[in-house]
Design goal:
about 50% helix, 3-stranded antiparallel β-sheet, 4 domains, mainly alpha, elongated, about 350 residues, hpI Integrase, Chain A, single chain
Length: about 350
């Protein structure tokens, strides 16, 4: 025990009582003891605890591997389908940072990794997804917000076009359905007529079908909210046929297919039909594109597709040139009516077709 002037430090006799005096987190504390030996023993134990970090905790570490694994577990627990979808991306970042303290991650490390992904011929969209997963991992810990902000500010990603719209013509739809096994056709037809995502379709049960109002209810969408979609005559007829055929008693879903198996089946059919690159999600684009081309307004398309932002619909604006022409032609009708009161001049034959070609 440390001594000063042949006296025990922190142990003192005052007013007939032995005391231990100690500073804990910059505050003086006194502990009463019965004897000197008891005071010396207590003082020694308290000093040892200080050295072990009880009173002065050692700085907390944030091993990246632990944070990333916890992120993957938490995300998969909230998913209804496509569990493990980010596994490869999480694994990649764990390989890069291992047990490095996440607070020491630098933008240079992140940029180097993204550059390597580009050198491995990954597409810009794929690289962007890797970066998104890293930001989500760091966002789980409050103490890492500064690191995340610096990375977001300094790391530059390759740009890519996220507004590519792939949609099926009537002939292509027929070819695709012909390339699929008949039991999968119903799922594709419902997707084309409702705009629902694959995961939403595969989770639908017969309890979600309201035959009286003609409404399909998706209890939980990608945004986490419920969504109600009207069923047109094609969907109602198809589901009526499925209902008559009956479903296995152990499965109450409309389409009892597994997500990954369905993805593989669809990819093979697309390849067989010669429609590559076309994804199941592009059926949703087809739904919105057909609505736009028949002249439906933005609010209607947003309500039917469950989109929250009008910006999402800008990608479909070019698909309805005739509708846009009618909008500007309305100005000509107003001007004609204000000057002469006569009927507006009708567009010459072939004008609409010409506009379609230009767009």
């Amino acid at each position: 025990m440390a001594r000063k002037d042949s006296k025990d430090r922190g142990v003192t006799f005052k007013e007939g009582v032995w005391w231990v005096r100690l500073y804990v987190n910059d505050r003086e504390k006194w502990y009463r003891c019965e004897t000197k030996s008891q005071a010396k023993a207590l003082y020694g134990r308290l000093k040892a605890e200080q050295r072990e970090g009880k009173y002065f905790p050692k700085e907390k570490r944030f091993p990246f591997q632990v944070i990333a694994s916890n992120y993957e577990t938490a995300v998969d627990a909230t998913r209804h389908g496509r569990i493990g979808d980010d596994r490869a991306r999480v694994k990649k970042w764990i390989e890069v940072f291992k047990d490095q303290d996440a607070r020491t991650i630098t933008p240079e490390q992140v940029e180097r990794t993204l550059f390597n992904l580009k050198a491995e011929q990954h597409k810009p969209g794929t690289i962007h997804r890797y970066f998104t997963v890293l930001k989500a991992i760091l966002n789980r810990i409050t103490e890492l917000k500064v690191v995340r902000a610096e990375i977001c500010q300094r790391v530059r990603l390759p740009r890519y076009d996220n507004e590519i719209v792939r949609y099926l013509t009537d002939a292509q739809e027929e070819t695709l359905l012909g390339a699929l096994l008949p039991k999968y056709n119903g799922l594709v037809v419902v997707a084309l007529n409702t705009g629902l995502r694959q995961g939403e379709l595969l989770r639908l049960t017969w309890a979600d079908v309201d035959w009286q109002t003609g409404i399909l209810t998706v209890s939980r969408t990608k945004g986490g909210k419920s969504h109600r979609v009207p069923m047109n005559s094609v969907v109602q007829d198809l589901l009526s046929q499925l209902k008559l055929q009956g479903q296995p008693p152990t499965d109450n879903r409309l389409f009892p297919f597994r997500s990954r198996a369905m993805r593989r089946v669809f990819e093979r059919a697309v390849k067989k039909a010669g429609l590559q690159p076309f994804r199941f999600h592009d059926l949703r684009h087809t739904f919105a594109s057909r609505l736009a081309m028949q002249g439906e307004n933005d609010r209607t398309i947003m309500a039917l597709g469950g989109w929250k932002s009008p910006a999402m619909l800008s990608r479909y604006a070019h698909l309805s040139p005739a509708h846009l022409w009618k909008a500007v032609e309305g100005l000509a009708k107003q001007q004609t009516g204000s000057k002469t009161g006569s009927e507006a001049v009708q567009p010459r034959q072939g004008v609409t077709e010409g506009i379609e070609k230009l767009w």
